[in-house]
Structure formats: structure tokens, C-alpha cells
Design goal:
By secondary structure, the chain is an alpha/beta fold. Helices cover 45% and strands 13% of the residues. Strand 14 and strand 15 form a beta hairpin. It is globular, with a radius of gyration of 26 Å.
């Protein structure tokens, strides 16, 4: 049991269940705490584990340093540990080097990050189980076979010619000490050593090139972790409306933030529609409904197209369009002509500005009913040809109706908003019990010995639990709070982006990528202290250049930390159109540049395009960095 494809997810779960039968055994769930897909995935997994009375501990972590600290404090020395489940983390790491496990423990990795670390996929690491998709099987088989064959060759004619290994041999390509489990299988005795023939050398070179290309092609995202765990729930016969909704939200977050393409998203939608039909009975005769049927219908999920302007059900139609990346960039609202075009479009639709600037629920009923037809007829005249995408909505009793997109934006804002940003919005947003939300960091798992620090380390965990609680129960109160907060932050993101365009703040660097730097004195810098909010700004800039740029280049955004003398840096690959994806090579560029300059940076997320770097190194780092080209 090393690699587990879709058909066999339930078999891996049975191992977890069997290991949990021992009353003294323990199970730890590590979850990446910075994105919505992980949040939904851990909620799904928790529901499955609870249904089988499996005791477990959920441990949110932000980056590999947190995982190393958690290993020291929670894993090393725990002889009762039987199962470690990793959600959206661990897939790109060598688990044998990272975790100090007892001989009975197994690790289960459910991670959407790619490419996978091949050390975790060979037979010698049978205690590490990686959930994969059948669509990946053929390619993975090729790379795993190449990896196994290269480890069977000597790295040169004399390497491993004795039973001893040098310090150099005990390190991997990144200078990290190899785990004895791995080095043991790579050690040869004198009597077993055979010099390679010229054909073997040629074959070895070919395999090394194949493996180099596997990692050098760039990072990307595979299936949603929430979607994967929902598939597990299907195989176990444990699905319900609540779990379906969590899976929908997780997958939608990956699509909205351009981590998966339209083809992959549509395949999920098709599956979810089938599930929705099975789990939601459409009662058409209201008079014939009994009480339980009415209650079921009031919490039902509906398949419904979603507009690419934000939160329109809860905002004014005008602000929803003006502050959406799609409409704002299509019409170039940072220019006077763009604002006029938006106003003119509303006029052509027969909607007065007075109506459009009201909260959507207060608009005239006939205008709301005409909206879909009007947009279909008028919007294409203004270049808005793909205003909708297939999605889902959910009724929260008789309280409100939320789309999956609404929930994604609310949760991502709860995850990313700093305490300073909350203070910035005082008077426009009332956060209940905020003293309990912004507490000290957990000393259990947050690493405090980093060479490159960020103020985000003090509050991200409280944000995670705030968003985690927002997914609990049938009330939408906390989601609606997140929506109100999102409206404020979205205004800042779009205003910041338009200000950059007006002041020509987006620079082309080394003719291979576009760069933006926000310094500490930048207004509203507190809004951009989390990878999620910086990514939203980067996506807005990307969308603008899709419409108005001459070249499609990757985008890098660097934001000064509001407290520490460091900057948060995130690079996105910038696919030509929304709905397409492109592999991200920024992590390769970071490593190459840092080695050349002897600069220090910290990988501040399991998304490898996110780093934290000292401000003194930032500008030389950006000037010297070249984004890799080619396939």
C-alpha cells in the first residue's frame, strides 16, 4: 500500500479504522490552514472519523516549518501513534526525512499539490500511502519506474563500492540528511558492486533527464482534497447533504482561484449534480409537504449558474460588478471610459443607477427576475461573453440562500484578515468576541525559530478556527459576517490594483515576468498580509493584462510585512485565459536566485510559490531572478 487510486480509497480507510480499534492508539490529522479547500476537506474527514468513533486530533499547520515543529512535539516518541493523515500537505516532501515515526505508524497523504515526491511512492516506503487519481496513473508509473531504476544504478562507477557512505552520500539533492530507511536500500557491498556498462550509463542519463524534467516542469494542482475525501465518503456509504456541500465549496475554491481548469471543474460539477439529485428531493406540491419534507427542502442544494461578479445577492448590483475582477478588467473601470461603459450597460439593460446601487434584496422584484435574461442579451455587447459558470446554491433554512462562490469568498476572507485589518474596518464591520478570535499563537505547533519571520505567525491559527467554526451547523451567521468583511477587503484589492495601473506600478522585470512591490507605507498594507489576499491581487493584475496587455507573463507580488523587516512574496504563472492553468516555476526561480545571491528566504506555505524574504534582500533578489522558460 503505497499509492492508492480512486477505486481503493476505502481500503486505506479500513486500515485507519483497524488501527483505531486499539483503545490506546492515536490518530493525528495535519491540515494546511491557509486555504478553503483544506478547510472543507478536514470538515469532511472529521465527519467520517466521528461516524466510526475514531479518536483523532486535528492540527492546523501553515508551512513546512510548522510541520517540523509538530513532528518534534507531537510525533517523535509517541509509541501509540498509528495513523497520521495529511491534508494538502506532505505530498511534495520526503516523509521519511520529515517525520520521526514509530514502526507501527502509517501516513496517509491527501494532497492536491504536484509534482509528488517520488520517495513516498516506492515499495520501500510502504508505511506512506498517497491518494492519487486514476488519470495520473500512467504518468506516475513512468516516473516511479524511472526513479526505482536510477536508485538501482551507482551514481558513479565507484560510489557505494564499500559498506560505508560519506556525509555527502547521506544528503539528498537539497543538502538534507537522508533517512536511514531510504539510504539503507541505496547502499551496496563490494561484492554486489558492478561497474556500469556504457549502455547502462546511457540509460541512467536518460532516466535522470526524465526525472529532472518531472520536477523542473513546474508545480501545479491536481484534484481537490475536499473532492477526494467526498469520494471516500461515497465508497463508505456515508454521504449526506452537508458533506456534499463541503465538497462543492472546496472544489469551487480551487476553480475560482485558478488552481484547476474548466475541464476538471466541469467533471466535478457533473458528479455533484448526480449526487444533488440523489440527496435532494424536489418537492413541487407545497400543500402536500409534511413538516419533515418542508425542513428537508429548506436546507436543500440546488444546481444553479453563478455569475462572475461577486456576492451580488448580498451586495448592490453596481458594487458587485465594479469590484469583481472579471467585470472591472473587461471594462477597465480604472479609466473614465470604463466607468461610463459600466453605467451605459446598466442603462441598456433598463436598470437605473438608483436601483443598481441598492442592496440586491431591495431592488424591484421584476428587475431581479429579468437580470438573467438582460445579462445574456446585453453583456456580450460589452465584451462580457462568459459571465456565468455552472455552480450550486444552498438554502440555509428560511434565513438566506448562499452560492458556493459566496461561501468561498467568505471563508477565504476569514482566513486571511489580520487583526490590524479588522481595526481598519471598525465602524463598518462588527466582529463579535474579537478578543477571543485574535489570541496568542499555539506554542504546540507554531515554529518560533525561523530565520525569516512574519507577523502572520501570530494570528493565522485563530483565523483558521474562526473559519472552521463558520462551517459548523445549519446557521449562516458567521458566513454572512465573512461576506460583510469580504466586501470591505474586495474594495481595497480592486482599488489597490487600479491604483497600480494608474501609476504604472506594474513593472516588467528581466523581460520574463511582471513584478509589483507594496512597501510598508502603502495605504491598507494590513489587508495584504496573507498569501490568499496577495493571490487575489495577483489574479486581478493577471486578468487585467489578459485583456489589455501585449504579452502574457507570470506575475509576482511582494508585500512588506506590517511589523517584521520582511516581505511576503507570491508568484502566479498567469494562464492566457480564465479556466486554463499553467504550471508554476517560481519555486525553481526562487531557489536558483537564492543560491546565486546567498540570500535567505522561508517557504511560508505549502504552496511553493509563496516565500518570506528579508527586505534588504528583496530588490536585488527580484532584479536577479529569471523566470524559467520552455515547457
Amino acid at each position: 500500500m503505497v499509492r492508492i487510486n480512486n477505486r481503493h480509497f476505502h481500503e486505506a480507510y479500513e486500515y485507519i479504522k483497524e488501527d483505531a480499534a486499539d483503545s490506546n492508539s492515536s490518530c493525528i490529522v495535519f491540515v494546511s490552514a491557509t486555504d478553503v479547500d483544506s478547510l472543507c476537506a478536514v470538515r469532511l474527514l472529521q465527519a467520517i472519523l466521528k461516524s466510526d468513533f475514531i479518536q483523532h486530533r486535528i492540527v492546523p499547520i501553515a508551512d513546512p516549518q510548522d510541520l517540523e515543529t509538530a513532528n518534534q512535539k507531537l510525533i517523535a516518541g509517541d509509541d501509540e501513534l498509528r495513523s497520521v493523515i495529511m491534508i494538502n500537505c506532505g505530498g511534495t516532501e520526503d516523509i521519511n526525512n520529515l517525520l520521526t515515526l514509530n514502526d507501527s505508524a502509517k501516513v496517509y497523504i491527501i494532497d492536491s499539490h504536484r509534482p509528488l515526491n517520488l520517495d513516498n511512492l516506492v515499495p520501500e516506503t510502504d508505511h506512506v500511502c498517497v491518494f492519487t487519481d486514476e488519470l495520473e496513473t500512467a504518468k506516475l508509473n513512468t516516473y516511479i519506474d524511472a526513479f526505482k531504476r536510477t536508485t538501482s544504478y551507482d551514481s558513479d562507477d565507484n560510489l557505494y563500492s564499500s559498506g560505508d557512505m560519506s556525509d555527502e552520500d547521506l544528503e539528498d539533492d537539497y543538502g538534507r540528511v537522508r533517512n536511514p530507511r531510504i539510504t539503507k536500500r541505496r547502499r551496496y557491498n563490494d561484492r554486489d558492486h558492478i561497474s556500469l556498462t556504457s549502455n547502462q550509463r546511457s540509460e541512467r542519463r536518460r532516466l535522470n533527464i526524465l526525472l529532472t524534467n518531472y520536477f523542473a516542469s513546474g508545480y501545479y494542482y491536481a484534484n481537490s482534497a475536499a473532492g477526494t475525501i467526498y469520494e471516500l465518503a461515497q465508497q463508505l456509504g456515508k454521504t449526506n447533504n452537508e458533506l456534499l456541500w463541503l465538497a462543492i465549496v472546496g472544489v469551487t475554491s480551487q476553480y475560482i482561484f485558478e488552481k484547476i481548469d474548466t475541464s476538471r471543474y466541469n467533471s466535478y460539477v457533473q458528479e455533484f449534480r448526480t449526487e444533488r439529485t440523489r440527496l435532494n428531493i424536489d418537492y413541487t406540491n407545497e400543500e402536500g409537504q409534511n413538516q419533515s419534507q418542508q425542513q428537508h427542502a429548506s436546507f436543500s442544494i440546488q444546481a444553479e449558474d453563478e455569475y462572475r461578479f461577486l456576492m451580488f445577492r448580498h451586495w448592490s448590483l453596481y458594487e458587485s460588478m465594479y469590484y469583481s475582477g472579471y467585470v472591472a478588467t473587461k471594462l477597465a473601470v480604472w479609466k473614465d471610459d470604463g466607468k461610463k461603459r459600466l453605467n451605459h450597460m446598466f442603462a441598456r439593460m433598463g436598470f437605473s443607477l438608483q436601483q443598481c446601487q441598492q442592496i440586491f434584496t431591495h431592488m424591484d422584484m421584476d428587475l431581479k427576475q429579468q437580470l438573467k435574461d438582460k445579462i445574456a442579451a446585453i453583456a456580450p455587447m460589452y465584451g462580457l461573453t462568459d459571465m456565468c459558470f455552472p455552480s450550486f446554491t444552498r438554502n440555509y433554512g428560511y434565513e438566506c440562500c448562499l452560492s458556493a462562490s459566496d461561501v468561498v469568498h467568505a471563508l477565504s476572507t476569514l482566513l486571511e484578515t489580520s487583526p490590524t485589518a479588522i481595526t481598519r474596518f471598525k465602524g463598518t464591520f462588527d466582529w463579535e468576541d474579537k478578543d477571543t478570535v485574535w489570541g496568542p499563537k499555539s506554542e504546540d505547533i507554531v515554529a518560533d525559530n525561523r530565520a525569516v519571520k512574519s507577523s502572520r505567525q501570530n494570528w493565522w491559527m485563530k483565523n483558521f478556527y474562526t473559519a472552521y467554526d463558520a462551517l459548523t451547523g445549519s446557521s449562516a451567521d458567521k458566513i454572512k459576517q465573512g461576506l460583510q468583511l469580504c466586501m470591505q477587503t474586495q474594495k481595497v484589492i480592486i482599488d489597490q490594483g487600479t491604483d497600480l495601473f494608474e501609476k504604472r506600478g506594474v513593472k516588467t522585470i528581466n523581460r520574463c515576468y511582471r513584478g509589483v512591490t507594496l512597501e510598508q507605507h502603502t495605504p491598507d498594507i494590513s489587508i495584504f498580509q496573507h498569501p490568499s489576499s496577495v493571490r487575489k491581487l495577483a489574479l486581478f493584475i493577471t486578468e487585467a493584462f489578459r485583456e489589455h496587455g501585449t504579452r502574457n507573463l507570470p506575475i509576482l507580488v511582494a508585500v512588506a510585512d506590517e511589523i517584521e523587516n520582511t516581505s511576503l512574496v507570491i508568484g502566479i504563472s498567469g494562464a492566457p485565459t480564465f479556466g486554463e492553468t499553467r504550471k508554476n516555476k517560481f519555486s525553481l526561480a526562487y531557489a536558483e536566485t537564492a543560491e546565486k545571491m546567498h540570500a535567505k528566504f522561508s517557504q511560508d506555505s505549502f504552496d511553493v510559490e509563496v516565500i518570506q524574504i528579508h527586505n534588504d534582500d528583496l530588490q536585488p533578489f527580484l532584479r536577479n531572478m529569471k523566470y524559467p522558460t520552455g515547457k
